[in-house]
Amino acid sequence: MIAVRDLTVRFGLGADVVTAVGGIGFDVRAGESFGIVGESGSGKSTVLRALAGLVDDWSGAVSVAGAPLPRRPDRAFRRRVQLVLQDPYASLHPRQTVDRILAEPLAVHGIPDADRRIVDALAAVGLDASFRFRYPHQLSGGQRQRVAVARALLLDPEILLLDEPTSALDVSVQAEVLNLLRKLRRERRMTFVLVSHNLAVVANMCDRVAVMTGGLIVEQLDAPRLAAGTVTHEYTSALLRASAGYDRSHGAHDAAMG
Amino acid sequence: MGGWRAYLTTASPRSRRQAALQRAWLGWLTFRTNPAAMLGLGIVSALVLCAAAAPWLATHSPIEQDLVRRLAPPSAEHWLGTDELGRDIYSRIVYGARITLRIVALVAVIIGPIGLAIGCLAGTLGGAVDAVLMRLTDVFLAFPRLVLALALTAALGPGIENAVIAIGLTGWPPLARLARAETLTIRRSDFIAAARVIGASQLRIVAVHVVPLCLPSVIIRLTLDMAGVILIAAGLGFLGLGATPPSPEWGAMIATGRKFVLDQWWIAAMPGLAICAASLGFNLLGDGLRDVLDPKLR
Question: CA A104 to CA A109: how far, in whole Å?
Fold first, then answer.
C-alpha cells in the first residue's frame, strides 16, 4: 500500500539546513497497521507529514496506494489518504462549529448529501447529534479528537495517517480514542500509519513497528517481538526500558536515560 | 421572555443560525458590561440617527440664510446659535452628520476589504507575492496621510468624493499590515494543515479559514481609524478642500467660525464639539469591540 525508499526531508537553506529525515525506507501492506516510534525530533512526524503531502520539499521514491506520491497532491489523492493531527486543540478551526468543520471536506470534494453524512460521521465516532452545532471550545479534548477523526473519515480514505493521536489527551481518554480507532479500522478496512513516542500505544495498535532516531530508522520489528522485548538495537532497548517507567529495580540509571 | 433566552443559551444548539446567534449574544453580554464601550455605541448610534432622521430632527433649513439674525447666540429659537449668514448651527450640525458619516462609511467600505484581501493573501501565499504586495504597502505607507490627502484634493479639486479617495489611498496599508501579521500567526497552525490535507485550495483556505480569524482585528482597527478619518475629513473641510459650501461640513463650519471665535465662540465651538464627540465615539466603540472580538484578550 505504501512503499518508501530513501525518503529524505531537509528544512532550511545553506548553512542552516537541517536533515529531518535522512534517507529511510519501509513498506506498509494493505490493511496493515504500521507504527513509527521515536522521541521528539526523531523525524517521525515529518515522515507522516510527507506521506500526507504536507511537506513541499522531499526527495526519494515514495509510492502511496500504487501510485507515486504526487508533488502537488490532487483531490483524488486527498480522498485516499487522510491525516489526523496530534493536538485536537489546534487542529480544529476555533471559529467554526463542528458542523462547519465536518461540512468542509464534503464541500471541497463536492460530495452530496452533507446533512446525513455529517450525522453519520458523528455517530461513527461516538458523538450524538447534540454536538453538531457546538464550537470546539465547548468540547473536551477527547470529543475534539473524535471530531478530527470524523473529519478524516468523511472522505472515506483507504489510508489513515495518525500523528500522535492521543498524546494531547488525558490518560483516561486515550484508551477510548484508541479503541475507537481500532474499531474504525476493522469496520472500514483502512491501512493505518501511526506515529507515537509512546511504545505502549504503538505495541497496542500496530502489527509492525519502525523505530526512528535522528532521522533514521534503526530497527523494524513486529508486534510480538516488541511485546516480548526481543530487540536487537540498543536504542530500542533503551526506549523499552524508558517506557517501562520509573521501575525501582532499575534505579537511577534509567531515570537518567528517560 | 424565557423562550428566546433559552434559545440563546442552550448548550446544544440545533442549527447553524442558532449557534451563530448564541455567539453574538455572548459577545453582546461582554460588550454590555463595558460602560465606555456602551457610551461609544450610544454616540455612534446617535450619529447614525442624526444622519438618517436629519429632516425631522433639524429645526431649520441648513442652508437657508437669515441675515437679520446673523451671529445670534444660543437661544430658544436657535438652540446652538446662528453663524455669520444667519443659518441655524444646530440644524447644520445635524445635517453635517450625513456628510461625516458618508465619508466614514465610504472610506471603511474602500479600505477594509482592500487591506484585508492584500494582507491575508500576502501572509498566506508568502514568497514573491508577499514581497511584492508588502513593498507596495510600504510605498503607500511612506506618504504622510494628511499631506497626500491635501495634494490629491488640490489636484483633483475639492469635494467629498476626492476627499474619500485621498483618505482611502493612505488608509489601507496599516490594515494590510495588520491582516498580514495576523495571517502569519495563523498560517502555520494545525487547522490550516488540516484544511490542506482535506484538499482545500489556497484561495479557499484564505477565504474560509484565514479571513474570519483576521476579520475581528481588522474591524477593531477600522473602527479606531474612523476617529482619525473624521478628523482628516474635518481638516480638509477646514482648509476648504473637503465638502464645498454651502454644504454643512463640520470642518468648514469651524473655518468660517474662526473669524468670530473671540466674540461669537459658538460658531466654531459647536461643530468642534460635534467632531470631538464623533471621533471619541468611534474610539470608545473600537475599544469595546476589541474586548468582545479579540480572541487573544479572552
Answer: 9
Question: How many CA atoms does the CB half-sphere of B78 hold within 13 Å?
Answer: 22
Give the length of chain A: 258
Q: Does A163 touch chain B (CB under 8 A)?
A: no
**Residues of chain A above pLDDT 70, percent:** 95
DSSP 8-state class, residue A43: S
Which residue from B minimizes the CA distance to A153?
B198
Q: What is the pLDDT of residues B44-77, one digit of tens each?
A: 999 999 999 999 998 888 888 888 888 888 888 8
Q: What is the mean pLDDT of residues B218-225?
A: 91
Domains of chain B: 32-297 (1.10.3720.10)
Closest CA to B193 of A93, A126, A250, A96: A93
Provide the chain B residues 115-174 that lie in CB contact (below 8 A) with chain A: none
Q: How far is A245 from chain B (nearest CA, A)?
A: 31
End-to-end CA distance of chain B: 29
Quick one: pLDDT at residue A245? 62
B286 contacts B229 by C-beta, under 8 angstroms: no
CA nearest neighbour of A33 among A189, A143, A172, A193:
A193
Of the pLDDT bands very low, low, confident and very high (cuts 50, 70, 90), residue A249 is: low
- With b for 16 or more beta-carbon neighbours within 10 A and e for fewer, the A100-118 pattern comes to bbbbbbbebbeeeebeebb
Count Cβ neighbours within 10 Å for each residue of B70-82 and write b for 16 or more, e otherwise: eebeeeeebebbb
- B 201-220 → A contacts, CB under 8 A: 201, 204, 208-209, 212-213
**Cβ atoms of residues B82 and B69 within 8 Å:** yes
